[in-house]
Amino acid sequence: MSQKILLDKVNIPGIKTYEVYRQNGGYSSVEKALKTLTPDEVVEEVKTSGLRGRGGAGFPAGMKWSFIDKKSGKPRHLVCNADESEPGTFKDRYLMEYIPHLLIEGMITSSYALGANLSYIYIRGEYMWVYKILERAIAEAKAAGWLGKNILGSGYDLELYVQIGAGAYICGEETALIESLEGKRGNPRIKPPFPAVSGLWSNPTVVNNVETIAAVPWIVNNSGADYAKIGVGRSTGTKLISASGHIKNPGVYEIEMGLSVYEFMNSDEYLGGMSSDRPLKAFVPGGSSVPVLPAHLIYKTANNEDRLMTYESLSDGGFATGSMLGSGGFIVYNDTSCIVRNTWNFSRFYHHESCGQCSPCREGTGWMEKVLHRIENGHGREEDIDLLLSIQSKIEGNTICPLGDAAAWPVAAAIRHFRDEFEYHIRFPEKIKNRDHFVAEPFESVKHLVSKLTV
Amino acid sequence: MKVTIDGHEIEVEPGTTILQAARMIGGEVVPPAMCYHSKLKGSGGKCRCCLSEVSKGSEADPRPMPKLMASCVTGCMDGMEVKTKSSPRVQEAQKAVTEFLLINHPLDCPVCDQAGECDLQNLSFEHGKSESRFIEEKRTFEPEDIGPNIQLHMNRCILCYRCVMVADQITDDRVHGVMDRGDHSNISTCISHAIDNEFSGNMIDVCPVGALTDKTFRFKSRVWFNKPYDAHRDCPTCSGKTTVWMFGDEIQRVTGRKDEFHEVDEFICNSCRFDHKNVSDWIIEGPRVFEKDSVINQNNYTQKLEKVVINTEETILLGRVQDRIKLSMAEIDYNEKIDGNPLNSEKNG
Amino acid sequence: MERTHYKQEINMTEPLMTRINELISHYPEGKQKSALIPILHEVQDAHDNWLSFELMNKVAEILQIKPIEVYEVVSFYTMFNQRPIGKYMFEFCQTSPCCLNGVEDLMDYTCEKLGVGIGETTPDGLFEVRGVECLGACGYAPMMQLGDFYKEHLTKEKVDQIIADCRDNKITLHDK
User: Which of A356, B40, C28, C76 has the most CB atoms lying inside 10 A of its own CB?
Assistant: First the structure.
């Protein structure tokens, strides 16, 4: 049984309410920080902990905090990114729905560290009922004196509000989120200036993921050094993994960094293996944006080392034979699933979610979707595979925000590892007419048709 | 601050962008720019045409920037080294952006009033390919009437946001904007509101393509058949300094005065632009000089005429070099190499 | 692109205005535009789940911003509807993890049962079926959003039950 930091109290009956949460040691990090620590000392603890941004990029949280501009004298803000929309990811929702006060406690302690007096939680519009849960929790916390003026007599003031989005994946990008929070279209801003200098209403702003902020109370209550003891190397602490797809026990799991992918997949404590007797074909470890990996690269890296649930191990081998931990959206595919169809599905998602501001993403995502749709529906041409590779390479790195990369990587990875499956679709259009074409006839059983032709 | 672009060194003020520095140098190092407009605050960064490679960040931090940077929104640092024309990566990226901008573009230049002064046309001339790899159906939009002065062709739009910024920054009431999102983003008033603000005509001048054109000039003439003159009038609303485009004695169109980067010097009012088409309305200053090479000034009388010398013809008249030499036997070098070795060398005995 | 105008009866009730003013108070003086998206949600919920131009103009007036700023925002976000829609809108998530668990078959089933295509409203104005992108419930697939709530682990039987409950007026759409 591994250590739980975020979800250890989630099963206590009534933990959603303020009273039960407080009886179980809730809000003690606020007490400790406000009464015994300076803001800089809190930042130092988080730095020591090695906590990395849990939204996907994995940037060290303490370092991000230390970039906030304190010299300008402008008001500072902490904004929590709860716009969880990456396909395969649903961990933040779990945390906010079942233990909302943990996030609020984290927001207060973190806002104190940053010297922010006005902070927001930006939650995606579809999580409307979670928005209401958070609103009620904030009201409870405020009534109990954890928010407002002169909290605990420390002289520190904080107002915390929750702001709702309205259906736009792009608002998970921090500058788009800020734009949306200002009541505008979610068009990402051009960086620099970074939000730490000019963010919400041009004030210095830090944007952190829900899970990142929820880890702060534990770090303050214990210590950064204790947190750093959990995990492996630069992947410290615990991570929430959202697991979905063809597995026995889908859901949200808190794991210690460094758990092996094999154990996570197969032990009964976690995913419990595949959902049926159909074999494992592929997996996506970190949400739809990260490269998909074929069966032989899942449990072992290309160097035949055990693949671990860490930032480093999952990306071992670069994009050639590795992937990324990303947001921890763990999607598992068995041999009935079609990689081409799945890639088209992801492409449709990015096409739908592109904000349309910069040309490569606006035009390129739509183009890729159309080509993939043709291939999946039996109208592919031999040259389409190379065309897709070319389009994705022209989007990657040339856009304002990372959505362009996120749209390009899954396409490149699918072709890199499953090129023969694309060729099969192009050469045998009559065999893929049905959308569940691999259910009766998995690709393994027809693979020889393409390999013979490929030579 | 010292910046080097493609080997050209230049001193710039802090706060200068790479694009501005490149424009100071001029010539081939200047990257194309479709969405940046120096007179519109917050413009730039969107079209990605001006991507450039920063091979040295600055004197203090000499590491190269891993990604290509949009030169219109990237500030210069002291000691920065930038590559535009000389970088194959940049050239590749500019080709890519051109392709992306063209896949859904109707390519209707033969019936487009912007043809001849269109930035997208220039861009594709420079970086485009004659064939398209895009075989899907092009995206189209339902037409919308946005009033008596301006014609909107949404299918041609590249979403540079310049017209939105003009409406925000030059006029006092913006009634149009960018609707929807992704590749369905479109310029619209939503409610067929007539755009009739006094300075709204400037949207036409800042539009880099044929998405917003002058209704009073619609299908009147190809731009290169007009002769542009700088002219002015005493205008109560604006500076009155314009360029009038003439066909014979007729003023067919009035625009702001554009510089070599197609940016207007001063924004003009709708009255000057749309309502004053008589020669007697204007004091004509003289022919407008175009610095930028374009189809408009191909037959421009302000260009200096130089004698055309065709090198191949000259050479043909002179005959082949070896033939000329062999005319005189005396000039033949009998020690000439035949098999690669001189005749009288030791090797040959 | 020109938009169709639909007529809508506007009713800015007392509780709605109180809620709007409370939302505006979440932001500093002069930054009231920030309240736009939360206000649009409230206003939309109170007006049959869609927003007419008249209603958007009303919101612009309250926030002292230009109407076009409201139109721009409304058209960007997928949760705002610009035409009258079915009372019960079944928004099925059709992104990969849900597809792995058979959401496509379920959508076909629902459409057939209701006699509509994707994006169409039943003639009685009661139902509408839509396919939307990832709703963040991948582990509980297949699923759909109905009003403010998620209906997860769906099966054909569950869909039948939900449709019956809608017809019997037993479904709560908004958490007020």
Answer: C76
What are C24-54's pLDDT values in tens digits? 999 999 999 999 999 999 999 999 999 999 9
Residues in A lying within 8 Å of B, measured between beta carbons? 168, 185, 190, 192, 351-360, 362-367, 370-371, 374, 387, 390, 394, 397-400
CA dist A365 and B154 (Å) reads 20
CATH of domain C14-76: 1.10.10
**B257 occurs within a structural domain:** no
CB contact under 8 A, B181 and C69: no
Domain boundary among B99, B133, B156: B99
Print the domain residue range for B337. Answer: 311-343
* Pair B178, B195: CB distance under 8 Å: no
Q: Are residues B40 and B57 in the same domain?
A: yes
According to CATH, where is 1.10.10 located in chain C?
14-76
Identity of the amino acid at B311? N
Is the domain of B115 the same as that of B213? yes
Class in CATH terms, A232-334: alpha beta
Question: Domain spanning C88-167 has what CATH number?
Answer: 3.40.30.10
For residues B71 and B134, membership in a common domain is answered with: no
Share of chain A above pLDDT 90, in %: 96
Q: What is the CATH number of domain A18-229?
A: 3.40.50.11540
- Among positive and negative, which fits the CA dihedral A342, A348, A354, A356? positive
Which of B219, B235, B259 is a domain's end point? Answer: B219
The residues, any chain, with a CB within 8 Å of residue B152's CB and separated by 6 or more, are B143, B144, B145, B146, B187, B211, B212
CB-CB neighbors (< 8 A) of A352 in chain B? 182
Contacts of C72 in chain B (CB under 8 A): 177-179
Do residue B118 and residue B210 come from a single domain? yes
- The SS3 call for residue B119 is helix
Give the integer Cα–Cα distance in Å for A243 and A146.
Answer: 34
Domain count, chain B: 3
Q: Is B332 among the domain residues?
A: yes
Instruction: Look at B183 and A394 and tell me if their CB atoms are within 8 Å.
Output: no
Q: Do B177 and C76 touch (CB under 8 A)?
A: no
Average pLDDT over residues A377-398: 96
Residues 6+ apart with CB under 8 A from A348: A369, A373, C133
Please give the Cα distance from A100 to A121 (Å, whole number): 12
* Closest approach of B214 to chain A, Cα-based (Å): 25
- Domain-embedded: residue B292: no
Contact A359 B139 (CB under 8 A): no
Annotated binding site of C for [2Fe-2S] cluster: 93, 98, 134, 138
Please tell me whether residues B131 and B76 are part of one structural domain. Answer: no
ipTM for the predicted complex: 0.96
pLDDT tens profile A333-353: 999 999 999 999 999 999 999
> For chain A, what are the domain ranges?
18-229, 232-334, 339-454
Residue B6's pLDDT is what? 95
Residues B181 and B118 in one domain: yes
- Residue B4 φ/ψ, nearest 5 degrees: -120, 125
pLDDT tier, B304 (very low <50, low <70, confident <90, very high otherwise) = low
B58 and B144, same domain (yes or no) = no
